[in-house]
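User: HipA-like C-terminal domain-containing protein. Structure?
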Amino acid sequence: MGQGPATRYARARSITSLGTQIPLYRVDEAGRPHEEGTLHPLWNGGCWIEQEDGTGERFIGLPPFAADMSPQGYLGRGFALRHPELGLPPRITDWTEDHQLIALALRGDDCVGDRIIGAASLDRFLASPLRPATEGQYPELARSSMTSEAGSSAGGEQPKFTAYVEGRHVLVKFAASDDSAAAQRWRELLICEGLALDTVRAAGIPAAATRSLNVDGYQFLEVERFDRVGERGRKGLLSLKAIDNEYLGHDGKGSSWTSAARYLLQSEYIGAEDARRIRWLDTFGQLTANTDRHFGNLSFFEKGPKQFRLTPAYDMLPMMFAPVGTSIVERTFEPRPPTSETLDVWADAAQHALAYWNRLEQTQELSQAFREQCARCRDTLAELVRRAPV
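Assistant: Predicted structure:
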């Protein structure tokens, strides 16, 4: 590994069906694949990625992009059932890193980002034509999303599928059409998500484009993918979770989006404007009852080695209202005042949060009871704004 005096040596590890060397490719924004290097699994765990120019990098586990690409969440749960020929454990929680590499190298042609791992997955990418869908097909795609080729390994437990519609690659979230209270709440939350991202854009911060629609009783939310360009083009990105695991470590530096932004800025991985936007999004999220601000819900485009640029915002909604199983659990909204790290963004985020609660209270697609809850949240936040010394 390496060149000249910096050369080090390690024993290679062979993975069933893959061997000791796995080719890596990157798909550019025009849809053309390029050889990027070779992944060498190592005997004592981790891997060495050798670039085409002979340089490389060693990783203790999977490289960050591979961790993001791996099957996960709602779409990942059915992966082993859809591909029994790979012999993978049925539950992805039981997978080792070798299992993840087998899945990516043999069936990883449509993953998050712009990388493709393995010649077999590249061949599948080259041989797979786009299959445009229409919104009229959404109910059937929703019903089959757990048993068919659902598409990319986009994470998260919200039911979803991917599609190519009217020249756009979209992630389509959906809520069932039954009459249960939990299903109704999920339908309302999908409406809330689209409106939250509208509010983020109104504040001057990029957010994923969305479209809300109802077909055959299903509530759908199209979220346009920002890792896809045109028909076949792709863009590389990494989640904050992958960056934190690889570069920030597990010593408390990444306890929140705001604290992670501080360390990313100090390490010169991101610029000052992106750090400010992250603090704003974290503040807006907590002032709009988004209790799901985990590190998989913030991502970055790759500008170069350890150089990142914030992607548009996504997955922004008042998850405090989410059902627990089939039950609706009443929770109290308790917005927090500014801190030393959010002082510069709190007042602006709070004003947009108030506008958001107002919009929800006036949205007729939401139930009267839910709109009344949103009005109470608005009033609680308005009182905090009145008292806050900003």
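The chain has twelve helices and 14 strands. Confidence is low (pLDDT under 50) at residues 148-155.
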